[in-house]
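[job 4471] stage=fold_predict status=RUNNING
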Amino acid sequence: MRLSDMPDAGCETSMLGANGSASRGPEAKDAAHHAQANLIHLVVSLFIVAAWALSAASAAAGEFRLVREQFSATRSEPLILLSGPIEKGDAERLAALIDEVCASRECDYQNTAAMLSLNSPGGSFTEGIALAETMREKQVASIVENGSLCLSACALAWLGGSSFHPTGGVGTYIDRYVEPDGQIGFHSPYLSDAAIAALPEEERLGTQATGLRLGISKMVRFLASFGVDPLVIDRIVAMGPDEVMTIETVADVVAFRGELPPVPVSTLGFDRRAITYNVCLKLLAHHNGTDLDAPSNLESSYGEAQTGKTRSGEAFLGFEISDRPLTIAFCGANASQAIPSDDFTISLARMAWKDDVSETYTEPFTNFVFSKVGWNQAAYDGQRATQSILRLTPMVSWLLPKQMRLADLPGPVRAAIEADKRGIAARPTPQLTRGPAATPPRTADFSRLRAAVISDAVPTIEDQSRRLYRFGDLDVEVTVGSFSLYSTEAARRDRLNQRLLTYNKHFDDSFVYSGVEADRQSGFYNFALLDGDATAVVRIGFALGADGRATQEAQRLIGQIACSARFGAAGLPCAKK
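[job 4471] inference complete, writing structure tokens
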């Protein structure tokens, strides 16, 4: 579909003219100037869907529909379906529906308000961008399911799939998926031949050049802000008017920062060597800033690193990297790790010298972390998560060969995806607001505090104002008291050595701070909530591993507690969206 086919083109054009008559003036010259301005504005504000997309003029209007109360067994958020052409006002309609869903459900428990399934031939370019921005703001994940088609403006909306994590400096991060038989297509902007022909001949070349420049500039800015690989952006803007870029292979999924739905590693059918090689190719390309299709200097022979064992004396298995021994020498993993498994790390490594310069050892420095239940990441360095490779679901695509077509994924993978969603519609909506504690509280004030994990647990120790709990690696202390408790906790925070603090934020009725203890062996995550004349303080302590971090399970539990905790009307921002 071309610009002249867009259903809202007439509306956009009339807005530019005085009294709605931009192209109906009595003089042809004025009409031509107005037409030129309208065309430039249209290129900037509208996107072209593929030539093989359905015409929005003949297709039924799109709609949003709440399909089921939980997306799948592994994703508890509700599923919303967008079907039909994307029209003006869709972003506002989605935002209103999310507010309605969240009014009866604690959307912040999993830091995702809903999953949006997209099935659309395209439509308004500006509304596709608006949908993406709304999804990022409202923490709506996106997916194109088997048999669904998502083109042009719909593909832009798909890029908005996002979730939110309140701790560790993560914030908003990319959360978008495609199933093996889902179709996603992108198109470069262009002016239709008919639109150009409508202009006076002497103005055609200048209008076309200016319009395309502005349209492409707007698209490049959008794609970059939503984490699309710069090399892919270059391919999109270089396409001709009849070309479409579709997400067909594993390499495409990685380049668009998408992901496959989580499946057991056992369904993939790849051994340690194959998984290590597949990950190393992607990690090396990411590190070097090169396209996955470009030639790689990763050797094909699998074995132990020639630079020696790791600093701790453990064998490091993987692949040599030619020509760069002093910067990047090897890619692999510690021999003690089980690969494939639910948790493992594969790293780029360099050659390093021992302190006495007697011999070399292998030093990992850039990591790919795979985890079934914790954070997955590739070279995430604590910067903006929306621009990084960081997910709270398994990065399955990184374990697969780059050239593998999604349509060719093994049968067990497809079966696992469908099994994860089977029977969900019959299940009741998860009740995420917890009921009263199993042991009746001794003071009425405790009934004002509601928090996942805590509210339905029995304290190990309790008195009139304090309760202690143990959850896995976490020690949790909950104290309820008067207004003065709030300022007392703030003073306690301010007395700490500020070098030990890793996070410290203050809000209207709450504050949160976290860090490490002076011995560097344990950490803490504390927050205070003020509701009128009463205060609740939650202090969480945990052991630190050799990497200086809490375990993945501890991090998950902390996020659940912090982002569901409310004391009366008070809560942290992630619990009040």
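[job 4471] summary: Residues 201-225 form the longest helix (25 residues).
[job 4471] exit 0
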